[in-house]
Amino acid sequence: MTWLYLFLAGIFEVVWASTMKLSQGFSNLKFTGLTILGMLLSFGFLSLSLKNLPLGIAYPIWTGIGAVGSIVVGVLIFQDRVSGPTWIFVGFLLIGIIGIKITSGH
């Protein structure tokens, strides 16, 4: 369950970052509320994962899922433009996330 909690924490990080953009500077109350809910769920699941994972493992994976997920959401939903070379570094992030998980021993 620990890794599921961490994965969910990363997904909800993407949710709150995306809804924060949609909140238009917290002027749209619906998306402001969803941002706060996403933050609470993200931090809550991260907290649960930290019961069994070291901070040095959980935190970079959490932020990595959030970073990669936010790039993907930005491209797919907000029509952000990402250059070819940038995708290479996104791939490096994925490799890093997977590498940390595989080599962590947890």
UniProtKB/TrEMBL annotation:
List the subcellular locations.
Answer: Cell membrane
Q: What is this protein called?
A: Multidrug efflux SMR transporter
In the record, the note on similarity to other proteins reads: Belongs to the drug/metabolite transporter (DMT) superfamily. Small multidrug resistance (SMR) (TC 2.A.7.1) family.
Transmembrane stretches, start-end: 33-50, 57-78, 84-103
The record describes its membrane topology as:
Multi-pass membrane protein
Keywords for this protein: Cell membrane, Membrane, Transmembrane, Transmembrane helix, Transport
Q: Name one GO cellular component term.
A: plasma membrane
